Amino acid sequence: MVDLSAVVAEIAAEMQAAPDRGVPAQYIPGLRDVDPARFGMAVIEMDGTCHLAGDADEAFSIQSISKVFALTLALGAVGDQLWTRVGREPSGTAFNSIVQLETEHGIPRNPFINAGAIVVSDVLLGRHEPREAIGEMLRFVRGLAGEEDIIVDRAVAAAEMETGHRNMALAHYMHAFGNLKNPVERVLGFYFHQCALAMSCRQLALAGRYLMARGVQPGATAGERGRSVVSPQRARRINAVMMTCGHYDGSGEFAFRVGLPGKSGVGGGILAIAPCKASIAVWSPGLNARGNSQLGTLALERLVQRTGWSVFDPG
Amino acid sequence: MVDLSAVVAEIAAEMQAAPDRGVPAQYIPGLRDVDPARFGMAVIEMDGTCHLAGDADEAFSIQSISKVFALTLALGAVGDQLWTRVGREPSGTAFNSIVQLETEHGIPRNPFINAGAIVVSDVLLGRHEPREAIGEMLRFVRGLAGEEDIIVDRAVAAAEMETGHRNMALAHYMHAFGNLKNPVERVLGFYFHQCALAMSCRQLALAGRYLMARGVQPGATAGERGRSVVSPQRARRINAVMMTCGHYDGSGEFAFRVGLPGKSGVGGGILAIAPCKASIAVWSPGLNARGNSQLGTLALERLVQRTGWSVFDPG
Amino acid sequence: MVDLSAVVAEIAAEMQAAPDRGVPAQYIPGLRDVDPARFGMAVIEMDGTCHLAGDADEAFSIQSISKVFALTLALGAVGDQLWTRVGREPSGTAFNSIVQLETEHGIPRNPFINAGAIVVSDVLLGRHEPREAIGEMLRFVRGLAGEEDIIVDRAVAAAEMETGHRNMALAHYMHAFGNLKNPVERVLGFYFHQCALAMSCRQLALAGRYLMARGVQPGATAGERGRSVVSPQRARRINAVMMTCGHYDGSGEFAFRVGLPGKSGVGGGILAIAPCKASIAVWSPGLNARGNSQLGTLALERLVQRTGWSVFDPG
Amino acid sequence: MVDLSAVVAEIAAEMQAAPDRGVPAQYIPGLRDVDPARFGMAVIEMDGTCHLAGDADEAFSIQSISKVFALTLALGAVGDQLWTRVGREPSGTAFNSIVQLETEHGIPRNPFINAGAIVVSDVLLGRHEPREAIGEMLRFVRGLAGEEDIIVDRAVAAAEMETGHRNMALAHYMHAFGNLKNPVERVLGFYFHQCALAMSCRQLALAGRYLMARGVQPGATAGERGRSVVSPQRARRINAVMMTCGHYDGSGEFAFRVGLPGKSGVGGGILAIAPCKASIAVWSPGLNARGNSQLGTLALERLVQRTGWSVFDPG
Fold it and tell me: Are residues D61 and D31 in contact, defined by beta-carbon separation less than 8 angstroms?
């Protein structure tokens, strides 16, 4: 029997000492200036037991991890109709590639590359004001985590707006194909704010519990009944998309090394799901060549080795 | 508790009646002439219980499913060095695309697209004669299935050789980048014979048991000890590559709908693995737009719905 | 000796009767609503003799033909430094493709595809207001043509602004690579107004005379001396870029069939130069599959056959 | 009045002293081992006057320059039907790119990139033996040059055969699309022998005279009548294809700097045509980044500056 708290602490200690930490994203101050020595990890089990280590309580910019929550909301809003506007295949290219959009007529490959997430933002925006859509997203994530102090880092969102020419290009390009309904500025305004959600590993692992638990968010206390967020089938399917598309053009590598559904963000966070076992969040700001957290991936690889939590071996 | 035999029989009956069966591969007589009304299914549980339905005992051309066995042998031969010559990322393009090879300098994206499998063939060929390599492959697959009457359909192999200009182009192209060590004709000779393995669903499911069972091929009788084919870690990793890359540019779709690691072949077969639960083979010659078995995929989707066997829900 | 006036009249008559006229550009009202029966032609010889036929005096939207004048101005402003920000190779892709920009890091292939012309607009804008830059362009073209009544069709410019998502995508994309210095809105504001220049065939042929005459714009009267617009070398070079890049992905075809440097616009106009012989403008709004004027090309092909004016046969 | 002999001698002297000579092609011994200090130039005027300088009489491997003669023969054999199997647009990619073939279904962009020239070889081969086709090509080129001692360098052809995996890939790929009628080995056997033609600058300039002179090969002596090789229109059109496609992905640059139709070869030669003025051949084995002769291009640029021979200024 594995002593999970010991394993988590052990991995955190190993990560603190790791020599090759990758490089934080450089394109905006809010990400560039984060101390690369940071490392946090949170593992929450099915019974609610929570194992924390390192900077597990420090908030960071979750960036693309927010795409998991946005996808969940969008499927709730429009159901499988969503898939007429965005695919669910791995992209085989960088997270911000525009080439695929040209050959596939403005339909992004999946909701976890930037183009796909922008379409999802457009769906969520619907006829609302960006402010309302951001509010809805915040309420959703706060509800999932059971914590009210999750916020949007407006400085990060503003910096993204200023430098986000590639995302603007993607958005205008999809608009040209008719795959965006709202004005580009409004969609991106919402998109950048959603990406600028600041959460700690603990909050992120809390928010991800429904994906571990067949779509049900566990109750706050042992006696309290859980709340269904999505159906069990939808939970499986979101996990499947995370498995095949959650790490951009490093998704195959992550499946190979870690063997769990996961979603990374350029802020250095990763949310990983061991179905029916644990909801896991790691954070370390240095990125590898594919744009995924260098130490976050390594920490998850070691966690899986020591716990045996691959989906390819249900134990 | 699900009555698995009833479920398998039920699905087979549904598939026999299915109106939209796809279209068999047309490029060679050996595939084109197969009766599209065929459907077979075999499910083998961890304890060896075997459920058969439809044409589960009829041999068909396994084609790309052989890439799973070839990958297993090549990892045995050269270990993780293999990954310097072939990647493990989804391709985002058709199974026989040459574009990716140009931009990535002759390194194919994964061992399950044609280019990657040709590199694996080159590794297995090593300094042997093609005949010897085919013999080794046959012995391996016969040993896995525990049946000696598995053969290579030489008419199919010969027809592939005659029409295989795209594969020849891929091979020469990789040779130009130095990623093929043997002459193209020899590598393709071996490759086409490997693809022309003729197996029944029952044999295929038998051969795949090590991937269900942490790398161990179960003994022939209840008392007999199993034989380790690969390490548990390697079994997980082969499953991971099947999950992200096993259905060409329909891998995301298969993960989404079925949620199991699987490998399809243009002959209409699919091998799917429910880790620690079952080794599954289906066959129906009609293909969908991505080149994967139309009814084979549907049958697996229904099997998973009725058994709850997604890797994303270990039950 | 060819009777040029007769030839021009003859061709115009043939074009009026031509059954296959192509289809006008459909994306904005100002282009979509033009009568496809229109055809105009103007040929101005070195000595100033002017041959007109059909609707040669009717103004149309010159669109991309303006890129020739913009390139001329930009080379005057920054000289050969321009070529660090835009190439001079044929693109091998559609006029509005974004793929090439990704593989070549935001440097457009040539100044005559949209992306390249947007960079040229950015150069011309410099530190000016869009309004000033448009004013300068108008003055330049009016001066070349010797006519003051050339205007910008503001309705066309406004419609382009509203629907120009592809061009916005191109602009933002280049901005992301640092190859745009001004805000996208300002650059495109100028770009769309420049494209909305309304000129007649006669005015266009007049404006193009410097490219026929070694860079010198002939005087208004026989006695008056000409004015040097560009050096003879630069005139040759602009002609060279028109020859290899002036018809998007139909440039090779135009060189093959017509054999003259030329620049087409999506409004159905073409400016063609027979060096030391004639400046030629044709207009017919229906486009061929490559986006170039169907009858304009045919008219030029016949003109060249009957006059022998290929640059590949100086006569 | 320019003293052409002096100009040619002067340029040759400048080239002998040039510091940056490029690098000879490295992929086969026959090209790799050529002394980079070599430089030759031959200019033949309409009246037959011949100006030679440097190593103008030394034979070198003409490589892709042979594609001009092959195109001429193929148009003679099948006329404009040729254009159903090969385009006439600049490629926008490297000379041996395979990407374009995938997106355009096996139709190469023009007859001067390798894929296009392989199709032309297939056309010329028709039902002949490769040996006969090579014989016909030799007779044609010898007849054009009026010299019988032009040969095929069989060592070069053999080395190309051994290392030509990219060309084999291109050929098999087009075969897969049905755009090759003969077996790949036979087509490439012919193709590589044609590329291995060894000619001096003098011989090459002699052979190219029909392209300068409206399709007529001048008589051997002043009194003798010329012989029509192609029609004037076809001569213009071959020149047009040379202008837009003759220097691979450096065609725009060559048109910009030199302003003449030209065709380069990886052996370091260039054939350039000043219509109605001169047939010009230069040779220097060092190549620039685009695979065209570094000093050959520079020499032509200077020749044109000093003679004024741009097609964009007929003088």
Answer: yes
